[in-house]
């Protein structure tokens, strides 16, 4: 399994950062390649663009501690697991993301995909920071509409 770890400081209280992150159906508002996430209890159904292809997979939340962490593992399709930790830093929150995923045999030959995934995680985390701090979607159709009307 390949592993990517990233973190960022978000200028919102830990309760708010956790609340926003654990609203999984809102992920398309800040995750560029995520088309949808449907949640039924601890079960999540993902549709996303992975390596240029539309993929669907299921995951389950394996651990969830309010205002501290949420962990998951895939149960079908794209094999991955991870944890997002939330640590208060004064009035702000440090969000630390760890993701492990299975590489295909071809991808295992080089580190190119690892760098691509690391860049995507960084972009998604930066988008999450803006989304949490601004309270508006930063990508997708809703963000494009906001940008057109506000000129930003």
TrEMBL record:
<dbReference type="Pfam" id="PF10604">
    <property type="entry name" value="Polyketide_cyc2"/>
</dbReference>
<dbReference type="InterPro" id="IPR019587">
    <property type="entry name" value="Polyketide_cyclase/dehydratase"/>
</dbReference>
<dbReference type="InterPro" id="IPR023393">
    <property type="entry name" value="START-like_dom_sf"/>
</dbReference>
<protein>
    <recommendedName>
        <fullName>Coenzyme Q-binding protein COQ10 START domain-containing protein</fullName>
    </recommendedName>
</protein>
<dbReference type="InterPro" id="IPR047137">
    <property type="entry name" value="ORF3"/>
</dbReference>
């Amino acid at each position: 399994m390949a592993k990517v770890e990233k973190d960022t400081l978000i200028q919102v209280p830990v309760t708010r950062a956790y609340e926003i992150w654990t609203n999984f159906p809102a992920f398309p508002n800040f995750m560029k390649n995520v088309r949808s996430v449907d949640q039924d209890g601890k079960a999540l159904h993902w549709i996303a663009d992975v390596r240029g292809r539309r993929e669907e997979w299921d995951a389950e939340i394996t651990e969830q501690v309010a205002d501290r962490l949420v962990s998951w593992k895939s149960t079908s399709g794209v094999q991955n697991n991870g944890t997002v930790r939330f640590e208060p830093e004064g009035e702000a929150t440090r969000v630390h993301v760890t993701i492990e995923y299975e590489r295909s045999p071809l991808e295992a030959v080089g580190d190119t995909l690892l760098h691509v995934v690391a860049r995507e995680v960084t972009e998604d985390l930066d988008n999450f920071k803006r989304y949490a701090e601004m309270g508006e979607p930063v990508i997708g159709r809703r963000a494009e509409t906001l940008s057109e009307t506000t000129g930003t």
